[in-house]
Amino acid sequence: MRHKSLISSIVEFVTEPFTGGRNQQAPDIALMILFGAMILFGLLMLSSATTVIAFQVEGDSYFYLKHQLLRGVIPGLILFLIAIRTPYHFWKKMAFWMLVVSVVLLLLVLIPSFGEVHGGAMRWIKVGPISFQPSEIVKITFLIYLATWLEKKGVRGLHDVEYGTIPFLSIIGIIAILFLKQPDLGTLLVILAISFLLYFIAGAPWKYIFTILGASFLILLVLILSSPYRADRLKTFLSGGDLLGEGYHINQAKIAIGSGGIFGLGLGQSQQKYRYLPEVQGDSIFAIMAEEMGFIVSAVFIGLFLVILIKGFNIARGSPDEFGRLLAAGITIWFVIQAVVNLGAMMGLLPLTGITLPLISYGGSSFAISLFAVGILLNISKYSKRRV
Q1: What is the pTM of this model?
Q2: 163, 212 in Cβ contact below 8 A?
Q3: Tens of pLDDT along 238-265?
Q4: Which residue of 10, 17, 30, 132 has the smallest Cβ count within 10 Å?
Q5: Cβ proximity of 376 and 327 under 8 Å
Q6: Which domain holds residue 299?
Q7: What is the mean pLDDT of residues 305-322?
Q8: What is d(CA 97, CA 116) in angstroms, rounded to the nearest whole number?
Q9: Domain for residue 271, yes or no?
Q10: Burial class of 238 by CB neighbour count within 10 A (0 to 12, 13 to 18, 19+)
Q11: Residue 248, class by beta-carbon neighbours within 10 Å (0-12 exposed, 13-18 middle, 19+ buried)?
Q12: How many domains is the chain built from?
C-alpha cells in the first residue's frame, strides 16, 4: 500500500500541473508542445553537430548530448515541474532574496577559489564536481526582482526621477559592473535589453527611455573601443575582416548556412562541423542546423520564436495583475532577444557576441534555467484571461 501511495504521489506531482484547478485553467498546452518540440529538435541537432568535436576531444561522439541530458535536461525538468506547479505570486515574495542571490553569485565568480576561468573569462563557479554559470541564474532571478520592483513603483512612480529613474539605473548599474568584471558583455546586453523593454512596458516616459538608451549606447561604444577583442569583433562585422583571422568564424558560419541550400545536406552530413566552424556546440549550432536541414526547416525554426513572442505577450496581456504581466513579458523578451542576437550574428546581421541559442545550444546551466523560466511562463498562463 505504501508503495502504491508513493507511486500515486509521484504521478500526481507530474500530471497535476497540466490540469486546471481552483481559480486557474489548464496551462497553454499549445505553447507547451511548441517548447517540447523545440527541445527535442535541439537535442537532435546537438547530437549531430557535435559528433566530430566530441569524438576528437573527449573520445565519445555523444559526450555533449549525454552531458546536456545529465546536467541540463534532468535538472531542468525538475525545475520546470516546480515552476509550473508553484503559483507565480510565490516568486514575488522571494524577489528581494533573489536579488541578493544574483549579487552574491556574481561576486563569488570573481573569487579565485570559486571562479573558474574558460577562454580568458571568469564566468563559472566550480564547487567540487559541480560547475555552473551564475549569469544564467541571474537572468531569471534579476528578472523576477525587476518585475516586482516595477509593479511596486507603478506608472506614477516611474515618472518621478528620484523615486523611479535613479533607483532603476542604480540597480542596473550594480549588475552591469559585476558582469563587466567577468567580463561577459554579451549576457549583459541581453539583460539590459530585457530591463529597458520592461521599463518601457511598465509605463516609463519616452523621454527617460530615449535619454537612457542614448547614454547606454555611448557607454557601450566606449567599452567596445577600449577592448581590443571587442573592437576587432565590431571591425569584423563592419568590414568582413580577414577570412583567416578575425573574420574566420563568421565567414565559416556563412559558408555552412549557404551550403545547406533549400533542403539541406541531410542530418549528420555537415562538412563544417569537421573542425572548420568554431563553437558548433554553442553559438554556432544554428549554422550547422541550416547546413544539414536547409532553408525551409531553418525558416520554420525561426518562425517558432515569432509564435513564442505572440503567445507570450498574449499571456502577459491576459495576466490578472501587473507582476504577472511584467514577468510573462520579461521571459518572452528574454527568449526572443537572445534568439535574435544569436541568429543575427550567425547570418552576419549582428556582431558576434558568444550568446547561445535558447534551448538548443550546449550548456547545462542555460538549459536548466530556461526550462525553469518556461515553467513560470506556463504557470502564469493558467491564470491568464487572454491566450491564443
Answers
A1: 0.90
A2: no
A3: 766 666 667 788 889 999 999 999 999 9
A4: 10
A5: yes
A6: 27-383
A7: 94
A8: 25
A9: yes
A10: exposed
A11: middle
A12: 1
